[in-house]
Specification:
The complex is a heterotrimer. By secondary structure, chain A is an alpha+beta fold. Chain A has 2 domains: 188 residues, Periplasmic binding protein-like II (D-Maltodextrin-Binding Protein, domain 2, 3-Layer(aba) Sandwich), CATH 3.40.190; 206 residues, D-Maltodextrin-Binding Protein, domain 2. Chain A is built from 18 helices and 11 strands. In chain A, strands 1, 2, 3, 6, 9, 10 and 11 form a 7-stranded mixed sheet that branches. In chain A, strands 4-5 form a two-stranded antiparallel ribbon. In chain A, helix 8 crosses helix 9, helix 9 crosses helix 17 and helix 17 packs antiparallel against helix 18. Chain A is globular, with a radius of gyration of 23 Å. Chain A starts with a helix and ends in a 6-residue tail after the last helix. By secondary structure, chain B is mostly helical. Chain B has one domain: MetI-like fold. Helices cover 76% and strands 1% of the residues of chain B. Chain B is built from 14 helices and 2 strands, in the order ααααααααααααββαα. The longest helix of chain B is centred in the first third of the chain and has 33 residues. Chain B is flat. Chain C is mostly helical. Chain C contains 14 helices and no strands. The radius of gyration of chain C is 24 Å and the shape is globular. The two termini of chain C are 41 Å apart. Classes of the chains: A alpha+beta, B mainly alpha, C mainly alpha. Chains in contact: A-B, A-C, B-C.
């Protein structure tokens, strides 16, 4: 018995020594997301290793698992992560509050739109380098609209009319996320176009008349002409339906464009799929355009010099152009002006981005630390609206209750009124 | 009389067939889908006839580095089970021979706690000890799954071995621990195989501990499924192929050790 | 008298010691740590370190209707799943309790769902359940039966999840009870037959009572795991639509890793632990009394 125990002890001890030894060599640990740009980084890392001599231990995770792992590591002050991809609007505030991002003073942010940088900076200092950008669009089936004699909707009225005309037993007129928290980002543009918002000056205002009108519209649209079970659908459920030809129009983020026009994913000729600007609401047309993913250095990193080298490379203009050539919509402004890129990229993406960049809103969710919980709360209102096709008598009361709760969350984290 | 017997026999086999189909159906569907293209999987109406493709499996094995996951799952499983046997066999013997009911309950307590509550505390311990980027953290966490299973099965199994065996050896001058090692253990082959197979399968299928405690080098199989769910794409063919690839080894193991696995499940239930 | 060594005399302590130490180190610290956290208001979104607040987190969690609903859902999911699994499992065991061609094969097939990876099963069943392109609705439609929303509707989500759980775990009950039936003595059944009892009466008054302890043991095993069901629900609905399928375990996960309210999630996890503990002790007492 004792003999065997000591054998285990030796094994454990030698593993400890090995782990310690690795900290001294030129190696960094990088966490990326299962995102097209994350994939691109993974593929390109050998070039980085060659030119800098730094070894990269890269790990890719699904987005929520990425946040989960980072949080577990950072919160227990036991992290070995050096560089990581991050979502400025989802975890940015919380991570920066806990001091988990290293400040990026010294980095040149001139190539990034100012309003996007607002979400990447906290207390006036930048902590995240935006990588990719996405904005709300309308995907639609050209052939179905033509057959019905409809032109592409440019207003909410036209959208609803088209959805009604295109809706049938076998094809849903329109689809958009209905799954509670996931729907919050897509419903945002609808709310903005009615003149409403989630938060204003650090206070929850989604119980205002414009916001409620927008939520009722969203509920009516999806409840009447949406696919069955839409209240538990996010993009991963809607996309296969769209590709299987069971949905005529779909509002969601631009990032899915590549999938939508991939012939290997659908039997329908991809020439029938197209992209258009998000339709205008009664008040305005200001769909969201945000930096969905950025990259940062961990404040707990013990290898900040090497980490910065990686960050600079991963966010460089060269890498950005590479991304653009692969139809990944990058955040840097200059790459959108590049002639070669413009000739290769789909004109629909360029046009819708130009529109959103000019008129769009730089947030797609309540921008706060407790955003996860807030999204669940707002999601409840969205689901209620969809379930009642926008007619619910309880909607105003419900929204008021949720506003109160969100305000409590803001107060708990010291963000109320800021 | 004879007609009744024929009818009831036919009915019986029809029932058995129905049960078998219900049990097998999801596996068959997963298997056929793994050879379909994404288009065919989501097509409506569902396609019964289709052109099979190996693309999904190629993705799983080549692009997704399946062999590395397989290797990791095997190492973690084997080490977790091996160490659990090391610690569990003596404990199970003690429970059986010395009727230590409270001890048995204490060890079973490990099964009652929800897995999530272990994650952060373990993270603290393991990273402070510098054990994160190694198999140690995973193996230790999987041992918490395997050890109670080993103890539960083996304590009942030892109880079916008559005390006279080691007692007669002890009368002849052997110590109890020697009798344990030289007499009891060799007789425990079937029970050990059962415990090993069952706890290995539970370790193999474990998702939560592996997801949080594993690093790139030590990623295990169940996590591989999530690789096909990325930010803007769900590769259904890949998911199906990954699911089949993950379950296949466990299924093969089950087929080989079938009778032991069945015995293990029923052990402790029948004896009480 | 033969001299016994120190080792031999203290075997009852030394043999279990490594296992006890191991479990102690790996389990006791997390339990105590979770307990400690439940007395704090640690909230990662506030950026502050854990602060001791006594029973405050408990009060906040217990007064949250969502928590009480989660308890309710945990019980309704578990009760439905275990009840169906026991009834169906016993029924199948009774049917299969005879010698027939292919019995070995049947037992092997029954083992398969038990060894399937729950997360993968969940993801695959999701596609199966899709209201528009899923196979289930297609089959129902072809047979002229009404289609359903399955996991996409608040009304049917728990039942749909229970169905998946039943598929996966009924075989375990069947196999355990089959072994129990195989171990029963023939005499009482023969005697009853001689006395002229019908097959149904034999089943009800002889067979089932004799095998009841085994059935209850199987139920305990299943109950403990069913209360903690995580993988399937996480992979299939994440607690949705809305919160309609949110059990205690899922809620604990959400509070930990989506809301980052570590103090309150610890309360939820302690509550789940107590629920499992009490249910297990309760059923064990029931089994002890049924054996007498």
């Amino acid at each position: 018995m004792e003999y065997k125990l000591s054998k285990i002890g030796v094994a454990l001890a030698s593993l400890c020594v090995c782990a310690g030894a690795m900290a001294q060599t030129g190696e960094i640990r990088v966490l990326v997301a299962n995102h097209p740009y994350g994939e691109l980084l993974k593929l390109s890392i050998p070039q980085f290793e060659k030119s800098t001599g730094i070894r990269v231990n890269v790990e890719s995770l699904q987005e929520s698992q990425l946040t989960q792992k980072l949080t577990t590591e950072f919160a227990t002050k036991s992290s070995t992560v050096d560089v990581f991809m991050t979502r400025p609007l989802q975890e940015g505030k919380m991570f920066s509050k806990n001091g988990w991002y290293a400040p990026l003073t010294g980095y040149d942010f001139n190539d990034y739109p100012k309003n996007i940088m607002n979400a990447a900076s906290f207390g006036g200092k930048p902590y995240i380098v935006p990588l990719v950008t996405e904005w709300q669009v309308l995907y639609y089936r050209k052939d179905l609209l033509q057959q019905a004699g409809l032109k592409v909707p440019t207003t909410f009225e036209e959208l609803e009319a088209a959805a009604q005309k295109l809706n049938s037993e076998s094809v849903a007129g329109i689809a958009s996320r209905g799954k509670g928290a996931a729907a919050v980002t897509q419903a945002s543009s609808y709310i903005f176009n009615y003149g409403g918002q989630y938060l204003e000056n650090g206070k929850a205002v989604f119980d205002s008349k414009p916001a409620i009108d927008a939520l009722r519209y969203y509920g009516r649209l999806l409840g009447s002409y949406g696919p069955k079970g839409v209240t538990s659908m996010s993009w991963e459920n809607i996309m296969p339906l769209f590709q299987a030809g069971k949905v005529a129009m779909w509002t969601d983020a631009s990032v899915f464009y590549g999938q939508v026009v991939d012939q290997s994913k659908t039997q329908i000729p991809v020439a029938n799929f197209d992209i258009a600007n998000f339709p205008a609401g009664p008040k305005t047309n200001a769909p969201f355009i945000v930096s969905s993913w950025g990259i940062s250095v961990a404040s707990q990193s013990k290898k900040k010099d090497m980490a910065m080298k990686f960050l600079n490379w991963a966010s460089s203009k060269e890498m950005a152009i590479k991304g653009m050539m692969g139809n990944i919509t990058m955040a840097r402004s200059s790459v959108w002006e590049d002639q070669i890129v413009r000739s290769k990229m789909n004109p629909g993406l360029i046009a819708t981005r130009a529109f959103a960049a000019k008129h769009g809103t730089p947030v797609d969710r309540p921008y706060m630390s407790a955003v996860g919980e807030a999204r669940d709360l707002i999601g409840e209102v969205i689901i209620e609206s969809i379930n009642t096709k926008g007619t619910s008598a309880k909607l105003d009361q419900m929204a008021k209750e949720k506003v109160t709760k969100v305000n409590e969350l803001l107060q708990d984290s010291g963000e109320f009124g800021k | 009389m004879k007609k009744d017997k024929i009818v009831s026999t036919v009915l019986f086999y029809v029932l058995v067939l129905i049960i078998a189909l219900v049990v097998l159906f999801p596996f068959l569907w997963m298997l056929t889908s793994s050879f379909k293209t994404q288009v065919d999987i989501i097509s409506w109406p569902p396609k019964l006839l289709f052109e099979p493709t190996l693309r999904n499996y190629r993705k799983v094995f080549e692009e997704q580095d399946f062999l590395k996951y397989f290797f990791n799952s095997t190492i973690v499983g084997a080490m977790a089970v091996g160490l659990s046997l090391l610690l569990g066999l003596p404990a199970a013997y003690s429970i059986s021979r010395f009727a230590q009911k409270k001890l048995a309950v204490f060890i079973l307590l490990a099964r009652l706690m929800p897995g999530i509550s272990f994650l952060m505390p373990w993270y603290i311990i393991f990273s402070r000890l510098g054990l994160m980027d190694s198999y140690v953290a995973l193996v230790l966490s999987h041992m918490l799954i395997a050890l109670p299973i080993v103890v539960w099965i083996m304590s009942t199994y030892f109880s079916t071995i008559p005390r006279e065996l080691e007692e007669s050896a002890m009368v002849d001058g052997a110590t109890r621990q020697l009798a344990f090692m030289k007499i009891i253990l060799p007789l425990s082959g079937p029970g050990i195989i059962t415990a090993t197979t069952l706890s290995f399968i539970f370790s193999w299928n474990n998702f939560m501990f592996s997801q949080v405690l594993s690093m790139e080098r030590t990623k295990t199989l169940p996590i591989a499924v999530y690789n096909f769910l990325s930010y803007a794409e769900v590769d259904w063919g890949g998911v199906m192929a990954a699911a089949v690839a993950i379950m296949a080894p466990a299924i093969v193991l089950t087929m080989i050790f079938q009778q032991y696995v069945v015995k293990g499940l029923t052990m402790g239930a029948v004896k009480g | 008298m033969i001299q016994s060594s120190f080792t031999e005399r203290n075997l009852r302590i030394l043999f279990p010691l490594p296992a006890v130490v191991f479990i102690g180190l790996l389990m006791v610290f997390p339990i105590l740590y979770t307990l400690y956290l439940s007395f704090t208001s640690w909230n990662l979104t506030s950026g502050m370190d854990p602060a001791f607040v006594g029973l405050n987190s408990y009060l906040r969690v217990f007064s949250e209707p969502r928590f009480l609903h989660a308890i309710g859902r945990t019980f309704s999911f578990t009760a439905s799943a275990v009840a169906i699994e026991v009834v169906l499992g016993v029924a199948i065991a009774l049917i299969l309790n005879r010698a027939f061609v292919g019995k070995s094969l049947a037992k092997l097939l029954l083992l398969l769902p038990l060894v399937a990876t729950p997360v993968a099963v969940g993801i695959v069943f999701n596609l199966f359940y899709d209201p528009t392109i899923g196979l289930l609705n297609f089959a129902l439609n072809a047979l002229g039966l009404p289609q359903g929303r399955w996991v996409s509707s608040e009304n049917t989500v728990i039942s749909s999840l229970v169905l998946v759980d039943v598929w996966q775990w009924t075989p375990m009950i069947t196999l355990i009870v089959l072994a129990g039936l195989a171990g029963l003595s023939e005499e009482p059944v023969e005697a009853a037959r001689v006395d002229g009892a019908s097959e149904w009466q034999i089943l009800r008054y002889v067979t089932i009572p004799m095998v009841m302890p085994v059935i209850l043991t199987a139920m305990i095993l299943r109950l403990i795991d069913a209360l903690k069901t995580f993988d399937i629900i996480f992979a299939m609905t994440g607690g949705g639509p809305g919160y309609a399928s949110e059990t205690l375990n899922i809620m604990g996960f959400k509070y930990s890793f989506e809301y980052f309210r570590i103090g309150q999630s610890s309360v939820i996890l302690i509550a789940l632990f107590l629920v499992v503990l009490l249910c297990s002790l309760g059923i064990m007492k029931l089994r002890a009394s049924s054996e007498n």
